[in-house]
Amino acid sequence: MRSIKGKIICAMVSLITATSSLLVVFSSFLSYKSAVDSTEYCFNSMSELSSQRIQWQFDSYINVAIDTGYVSRLSSPSVSDEDKIAIINSKIDIYNFSEGGFADKDGNSPDGKNYADTDYFQAAMRGETHIVKPNLSEDTGELEMLFSAPIWDEGNVNTTPVGVVFFSPDSDLLNDIMRSIKISENSAAYIIDSDGNTIADVNTQLVKDGENIEELAKNDNNNDGYDSLAKIHSKMRNGEHGFDSYKLNGVKKYIAYSPIKDTDGWSLAIYAPEKDFLNGTFKSIFVTVLIMIICTLITIVVSIVLANSIGNPMRQCSERMKKLVDGDLKSPVPVVKGKTETAVLADATSTVVSCINGMIADMRRILEAMANGNFNIDTEKSESLYVGDFNALIKDICSINEKLSSTMSQINIAADQVNSGSDNVASGAQELSQGATEQASAVDQLASTIRTISGQISNNSSNCSNAHEIVNDTVAYIKNANNEMKNLTDAMNNIEDKSGQIRNIIKTIEDIAFQTNILALNAAVEAARAGEAGKGFAVVSNEVRNLASKSANAAKDTTVLIEQSITAVENGTYIVASAVDVMNKVGEKSNEVESIVHSIAEASRTQAEMIEQISTGIDQISSVVQTNSATSEESAAASEQLLGQATALKDLISTFTLKEE
Less crowded by CB within 10 Å, the N or C end of the chain? Predict the structure, then answer.
């Protein structure tokens, strides 16, 4: 996963690089295009001006020849050749021609030459002017150029031409003009004729050699680049204007060309190396690229500094929050100075950690106290720690504390009641056991008496009164025992009722544990929905659920103990009911004994006959008394066990410190 720091650096560097590159490309393209357009304009303008200059120069020379042809003395046969030569020489002196001359209508010249077969003579005889392109003179071997015009009869224009007048300017005229044409340091100009031959150049030797680029292109075996230049020369010969480029001998050059008017297909070309015009542009592009690189480097440095000022605090805060999610509440929180968003984020992180730390510490205090059995906890002073949605958490904890404390208080009250009832049951059982023992002893005495009666039947009358008193005492004891058994029955019923109440209390504890478990489960679900930020609350909910589970287990253990106590109480109730039934039978038998004693008193004579029946009744009484004694002992043992369970329950409840209601 890419960090914010890396994203900031990458974004800023990418943006600046892309923007700078786009600006460099765009500005370089505009600079290059502007330079090329400016160069093209300069070349075209210069070629046009230069061709016009040459045209004007040629027109001036032609005009001199035309003006000379208007001189009537040159057409007059009466004027001598010397005078005519003087006229020509005056023109040569005035206009700095290198030479001049004339010929009559037959082409004869005073210098002895005949020009009748030349193009310019024939053109003059047609009434036309003519310009002879530079060529090597057969006499001097130098380049010469000639301007000619017709000599009109008597100097009248549009009459009959009677000869030709011609002038030759300086042999280097065109070459000098080419040298004067400069558009850059390494620029040059030249003129080609309609055949493509170079007739003017800064290098006179090329003119003398009759250079023809198109012919050179045909024979270019070294691939020097004459083909592209030859195509341009073809356009020049066709009288086209234009601007173009070509590469010759590995050097790229610009060229502009323009035809020279009033000539026989001549065309002027100006060329110069590309570097003469684009060198500055290339340098500016280089400087622009260099500036872009410097700006990019500066941007990288600024981006790193900015990314560090933003990314490092955010990374530290995110790492601290991750530690918080992992349960780390003690690691220091990063400190960021200033009033930027990162400083606000760091302060918020510190606040979050501090608040959660305070809430966790407070919940730990509360739960630890509850785990140690202390439910009398002050939670009001710490409620200010739980802000916003966290306030529901402390309310739920307080609710759990209050409900558990209330439940334990009720269990404590019930335990006190069970303890008191168990003590009463135990006391009654002890008394019942003692009474049964006394009954057994009385029955033994009665049996001994009966045996004595059997042996001393004769003394029955005298002992009848004693027997009557003993029976009365026995009836009194039986009545007392019957009353005590009724009390024991009432106590056992009361114990059974209290046991039912205890079962309801245990059911309430189990319901509280179940609701607490559900509450913890809901808290865990809400923590899971909160994602990473809710892991801390998931831990808290898990601890609450564990506490609920412990409470449920404790309730189950208590339920087992109470169920055992209830079972023992039910057994005791059953035994007491049996004892009551026996005591009722004993009471009935005692009444029978009393009737018998009365019968003995009233009819002692029949005593001997009934002695056998009395012995049988005494045996039955003895058996019942023995059974009653055993039952009393079992009831006493059950009462002792119930008392022990009640004491244990009381001791268990006493380990908790409950709130005062």
Answer: N
